[in-house]
Design brief:
By secondary structure, this protein is α/β, with parallel strands linked by helices. Helices cover 42% and strands 13% of the residues. The radius of gyration is 18 Å and the shape is globular. The protein is built from 13 helices and 10 strands. The chain has a single domain, classed as Aldolase class I (TIM Barrel, Alpha-Beta Barrel). Strands 2-3-4-5-6-7 form a 6-stranded parallel sheet. A 4-stranded parallel sheet has the order 8-9-1-10. Bound molecules: S-adenosylmethionine. S-adenosylmethionine (SAM) binds next to loops.
Length: 333
């Protein structure tokens, strides 16, 4: 297995002359370890209410211009059913940090969706050990919570009302409870250094994350970082490719933020180490309102048509869509 020192990671991230080598090595490692199947996860963004004030995010509590929505438990379960009916094997439930969704409410939703025989991933932010335990008992299989950055000073600048230690505690609790755990970082935040990106990659390896989502930072005009410089897609792809090389068998999505910066971003990512796509299965109105950054790609009227067109694209690069739930450690599902 390939190992890199921090200095080697920094050198690779700084030097763009070897990018083709890096992307094809990551593609080869992906092929040898996870094969040619791509896992599609149906993403339901069920609430854009958020109590946090992350400086980069359009959902931040202080954004008074956003049109807030919350789906009912019934609507979330119905939406999941429509996705399952057209072949999705995993449903991802994501929201801002919305206290309206108590542990009991979320458990009811998770177990309602588990009845359809699919995997359920939650991404609802920081909760207590007891809440994570309750979600697990209700049937949740995976949890996504990005560390965003491992640079503690930058973390503090970006998340005024949050604590880096608590974010770490969440990741630890989720591992202890037996979830497949996903984390990741933003690439291109103001004041972020290449050294801290190298630390992020080493952190993913250190905690042995099961899933890693990397997204270029995209400024949102209704946030304090509205006028900041946009993140680089190439640098985000490089962080992703290095992560694949260091964690050969994990699940890595081609993220929506990558597709937002380049109409072919998802395919490029799938050829540079990624093996997962998370299409939005929300209705169009809610999809548009879940505006973490502007012009978010992948909001479609017809779910079936969108899935078929994605499958066609996947075929053109010689890959297939998996019929399994796509766990990191194959448990036969
Ligand atoms: N509230 C949950 C949490 O904190 O983990 C999940 C929802 S949060 C909106 C999902 C992800 O959106 C964050 O982890 C962050 O990396 C990403 N995000 C937010 N604003 C962004 C921006 N302006 N550009 C790119 N990604 C962004």
């Amino acid at each position: 297995m390939t190992e890199f020192t921090k200095q080697e990671l920094v050198d690779i991230l700084r030097d763009d002359s070897q990018n083709d080598w890096l992307f094809s090595l990551a593609d080869k490692v992906r092929q040898e370890n996870t094969g040619d199947e791509i896992h599609l996860r149906g993403l339901i963004e069920f609430s854009n209410y958020c109590k946090n004030t992350c400086k980069y995010c359009g959902l931040r509590a202080e954004n008074s211009k956003i049109d807030r929505y919350r789906m009912s438990a019934d609507d979330i379960i119905k939406c999941a059913k429509s996705a399952v009916d057209i072949g999705y094997k995993t449903i991802v439930l994501q929201s801002g940090e919305d206290v309206f969704f108590t542990s009991d409410k979320l458990c009811e939703i998770v177990s309602g969706i588990k009845d359809f025989g699919v995997a359920v991933t939650l991404s609802v932010g920081e909760r207590s050990f007891e809440e994570y335990q309750a979600f697990k008992r209700a049937g949740a299989d995976r949890y996504l919570i990005r560390i965003e950055t491992t640079d503690k000073d930058l973390y503090k600048q970006m998340h005024p009302n949050m604590s880096f230690e608590n974010r770490l505690r969440c990741l630890r609790d989720l591992k202890t409870l037996g979830y497949e755990v996903g984390t990741g970082c933003l690439v291109g935040l103001p004041n972020q250094t290449v050294e801290s990106l190298a630390d992020d990659i080493l952190f993913f390896k250190e905690i042995n994350a099961d899933m890693i989502g990397i997204g270029p930072f995209i400024p949102h005009p209704q946030t304090p970082l509205g006028k900041a410089k946009i993140g680089s897609l190439t640098l985000a792809l490089k962080v992703m490719a290095l992560t694949r090389i260091l964690l050969p068998d994990i699940n890595i999505p081609a993220t929506t933020a990558m597709e937002t910066l380049n109409p072919n971003g998802r395919i490029i990512a799938l050829q540079s180490g990624a093996n997962v796509v998370m299409p939005n299965v929300n209705n169009v109105q809610n999809g548009k309102k879940y505006e973490i950054y502007p012009n978010k790609s992948g909001i479609c009227e017809d779910l079936q048509l969108a899935k078929a067109s994605l499958e066609d694209k996947i075929k053109t690069i010689g890959r297939t869509v998996s019929a399994t739930q796509g766990f990191r450690y194959d448990n036969g599902k």
